[in-house]
Amino acid sequence: MTRECRSATMAPVMNSSTLLAAGTTVGHQHIRYGLLLIAIVALGGLGLAAVHLTRRARGGRPERRMTTPERPARQPSGPGPASPHRPPSPPSGLDRPAGGWAVETHGLTKRFGSTVAVDDVELLVPRGSAFGYLGPNGAGKTTLIRTLLGLTRADSGTTALLGIPVPAQRSRALARIGAIVDEPRFHPHLSGRDNLRLLAAARGGGAEQRIDPALDRVGLADRAGDKVAEYSMGMRQRLGVAACLLADPDLLILDEPMNGLDPAGMHDMRTMITSLTGEGRTVVLSSHLLDEVERTCDRSPSSTTAG
Fold it and tell me: CATH for 103-304, among 3.40.50.2000, 3.40.50.720, 1.10.10.60, 3.40.50.300?
């Protein structure tokens, strides 16, 4: 009796081999009852598992998982930007002129790391016009000019100046272009005229004969013998325009030409730009001064761009 009670007390913590060994101390009848009980429990567990699997197969509630649902793809509400593998559609109401555009870009983009400085620019500038584009400091105006001139390589898009592809035929295009990028820089210890002589010698093609007419046109004839170190910012701007005129250009690209000019100087610059376009030349200028662009230009991005 003592052995039976001890065996019953330990049974819950025994494994199957221990249970069979303990059965030798009890009767064969107890062994049969014990094995039968184990079989019933095991079959009951298998039955429950089968019922659970059947419910899963018939669409029962699946196990909950900690997952983040996928967002459906956002459908654009309107026409998006042109695909880089597909040429952009021409802007409505603008037909290509017989001589082509003075400036033509499609999808022009320039990045510096993760910063997009020039973003998918579509630009068409008619010949013989004064075209201005506006933007605050840091908006990418100078970067656009550098990209147009091939001074910095675009990440994507195409550019043509006077119908000449850039940068593929950059030298050919620049021979017919005068440009101020950022701000004009000269040798401060030389006079304005001597600085132009150096530039004319480098350019060739009769540029030296254009020095005096260019100085007179920008209103620096009386100060041409003074050192550039003595020039004001506005005078250096005008000397930069004179340097552009040495090429007898068909296209002038001027980066903030009104910087440093007093009201009288701005008026003279407007008059000069008007006279240049009157000769059939094209002037493209950047600025952050809306009033001056409205007074100076006869074209704006809204009338010459697509996108």
Answer: 3.40.50.300
